[in-house]
Structures are given as C-alpha cells and as structure tokens.
Amino acid sequence: MDLHRPGDDQRVSKKGKSKKGFVILLSLLFVGLASFLLYFYKKAPPPKPPEVSLEDQRNTITGSLEKGQTLSEALLKQQVPRELVPVILEELRPLYDFRKSRPGSSYRLVINGKGELVHFLYESSPVDIYEIKREGSLKAFKQEVVLEKREALVAGEIDSSLFESIEGKGEQAQLAMDFVDVFVWDIDFHKQSRPGDRFRILVEKLYKGDQFVKYGRILAAQYQGDSKTFTGIYFQGVKGRGGYYSPEGDSLRKTFLRAPLKFTRVTSGYSKSRLHPILGGYRPHLAIDYAAPFGTPVWAVADGVVSFAGWTGANGNSITVRHIRGYSSMYNHLSRFAKGIKVGGRVRQKQIIGYVGTTGLSTGPHLDYRVMRGRRSLNPQKQVFIPGYPIAKAERGRFLQLRDGLLKRLEAGV
Question: How far apart (Å, rounded) are the C-alpha atoms in residues 373 and 320?
Fold first, then answer.
C-alpha cells in the first residue's frame, strides 16, 4: 500500500531550503561582524605608552681602566657628565685609595634622565668591590665578599730556582714569597738553595665560587736540602698570637733574620781578601753583597735602635742598628731611607728601614750588609743566633695533636 501522500515532497523541499537559508544568513552575519571588528581594530589608534618620569629613565655605562689611566679619566672618556665624576670620587675616597687602582679594574654606573647618579659599582679585585646607591641620598659602601677556604698541597723539586719551581706547579710567585717567610730565620735562600732540593707546602687557598682569589695561611711547610730538612708548623696559642714552630715545638723565629731583604741573589760573599771592583787590589770584604733591583725594600734583621743614619762616603747612604748583647748591623749604598728612620728611633725585625741603591763607591744597585759584635766583624751566614720561645707547657698537648695531623697531610697529601 503506498502511504506517500501528494505534497509531502514539496514540504520537505521547503524545509531544506529554509534551513539552508538560515545557515547562509548566519555565515553572512559572522563574516560581517568579523570584517567590522577588523576594520575597527585597524582604524583604532594604538594605546599610548605609560609616561616615564625623568627620574625613572635609566642610562647605563660600563667600562674598565686601561694601563696608566685613572678612574676620572676613564669616566670622562666614556662621556660621563663632568659634574658627576668628583661626586663619585668623593663618595668612595673614605673607602678606597684610588692610587692603588690597577688596569682592568671595572666599573658600572647608572644615570637617570635628570643626569643624577643612581648607582655606581667599582670592582678593583674579586674581593674589593665598592658601591654607591641612591636611597634618598647617596650612600657608599664596600661589599662583603665571603670566600671559601680550600686546603691544598704543593710539592716539588727545585730545578733552577725556588720561584720558578713553584710557578712551574701552576702557582703564583706570592706562594714562593710566603714560603720563604716561614724559614726566613733559618735559611738564606740566596745562598743555600740548590737544584735537587725539595719543598712541600700545605696551604689554604681562598676562592670566590670557582675563582681562585688569593692564598691564605701556610699551615705547614718543609724544605729538604742536601744535609738538613727544615719543617715549620703554624700554631696559634690561646692568647691569639700565632707563629711557626719546629715539630719539637721550638719557635722558628729567632733574634736575627738570615737575610735583610726578600729573596734575591748573592753577588759577593764575606771574605778577608777580595779584589775590589773599583779601587783595585785585594782588600777585606767583611760584608755580604746582595744584588737587587733599585728601590728594593731593605729590612732590619732584628729589633734594635738606629745608631747612625746618614752619608758615609764610600758606603754612601748608610744605616747602623744596635741590637741586644752587643750585636749591630749595617746597611750600605742605600738609595734612600724609609720614612721615620732617624738616630735614636726604635725599629722592629722585618721593618723596612731603607731601599737598595748604588750610592757611594758602587758599580750597580746592591745592598752591602754587615754584622758586628762590639768592634769585631762577623760572617752573618755562619752565625747561630738566639732562638725564640718554645711552645708553653700548658699548650704542648694541643700543639702535638695539631702537629701530627698537619704532618700527616703534608707528607701524604690532603
């Protein structure tokens, strides 16, 4: 039986057309709305950026010092406003001596739109960092830098010189000078150091993160020569004063230093018959001559009182210091005297009293060093001087415990 009635197809067709027309109308409305929004967006002016006051505007300038350049010269070269340069210097002057500035020292400053200094940072070394900040008014301060201590063992054999051998281990010359200072009362490295001698140094190294900054204290040191081994252990007593001691607890510090200046070379030794380089002929040379660069600092070898400081003809500028038990020491051919050195003045062991020169009868910069007892001249390299005080009995147990630990690390590695 055919249930299909006439007119049904026509009604279905009208429904489909109606639905299709609705979809087309909706699409046209969507396209029209999108076009309108796009047109409005293009025509609408962009939003204005927020206004920044002159105080909030920032101009940053960075740089570093060149060789022979002062901070003020560097800043002016970077076109820092001229009126700001003295402000920076005056703020930092109580904290830092700009005469110590070195090439490579870096700086960073921030200036606002008014031309006012907002912030200044000056780094002369990893641990010497200075800042100026504007917090209402300008405030200057030094940054606190925390360094990490790491213990290290440096050991080796001397090939040509102590300095070159230590530097050959990747270390700096400062460590060699610190090592020499430990044994400065027992070893004259100018004369006694020989190729084949061995050294061991247990030292603190100070780091800022992974960056090595400087050496700390030498905790223990050892120098092995042909005939004798010298060992120094650092120990600080309960009263706070520290020093170096032998493994037996005797102080390495003695009344006299073995040499009156930092490590250098000997050009002429103590002799009762030496060919004089200027006057000719063989004459006694009752002194030790140390060749050293012009201006090298000269130490007093022991505590004492200055008994002479002046010109002596052949010896040029000369200083004589009177010590205990009738000893005296003489320093000749000096270029000049240290500030404050005068007759009657007291000097301490290792105090700088003058500077190497070539005054008087001299063929070049050197120090002529002499030791007398009464009127008798002595060979300073053969004298056995009075030792210092040993470890106090009350602290001996603590010293021995520390000694054993340090020697174990010194001889077997950290």
Answer: 12
Residue that wins the pLDDT comparison between 49 and 232: 232
Burial pattern 122-131, b for ≥16 Cβ within 10 A else e, equals bbbebbebbb
| Structure token pair of residue 36 | 């309108």
- Chain centre to alpha carbon of residue 277: 41
pLDDT tens digits, residue range 314-337?
999 999 999 988 999 999 999 999
**CA–CA separation, 316 and 327 (whole Å):** 22
Pairing status of strand 317-322 against strand 327-337:
antiparallel
Give per-residue burial for 42-68: e unless 16+ CB within 10 Å, then b.
eeeeeeeeeeeeeeeeeeeeebebeee
pLDDT at 355 over 80: yes
Q: How far does the chain reach from its first CA to its final CA, in angstroms?
A: 110
Mean pLDDT of 388-414: 89
Task: Dig out the tokens for 231 from the structure.
Answer: 């060992």
Query: SS3 for 164?
Result: helix
Q: Are 179 and 201 in contact (CB under 8 A)?
A: yes
The closest of 258, 253, 199, 208 to 230, measured between CA atoms, is 199
Least confident of 2-11, 89-98, 281-290: 2-11
User: What integer pLDDT is reported at residue 275 of this predicted model?
Assistant: 37
Q: Which residues pair with 352 in a beta bridge?
A: 299
Model-wide pTM > 0.85: no
Report the 10 Å Cβ neighbour count for 86.
Answer: 10
- How many residues in total does the chain contain? 414
| 414 neighbors 200 (Cβ within 8 angstroms) | no
At 74 the pLDDT is 94
Beta-bridge partner residues of 289: 268, 368
Residue 123 identity (one-letter amino acid): E
CA–CA–CA angle 134, 139, 145 (5° rounding): 110
Go through the domains of the chain in sequence order and give each one's CATH number: 58-142 (3.10.450.350), 148-245 (3.10.450.350), 265-378 (2.70.70.10)
Closest CA to 56 of 98, 110, 17: 110
Residue type, 383: Q
Strand segments (E) across 136-254: 137-142, 148-157, 198-208, 211-224, 229-236, 242-245
Q: How many CA atoms lie within 13 A of 209 on its CB side?
A: 3
Question: For residues 260 and 213, what is the distance between their CA atoms, to the nearest angstrom?
Answer: 29
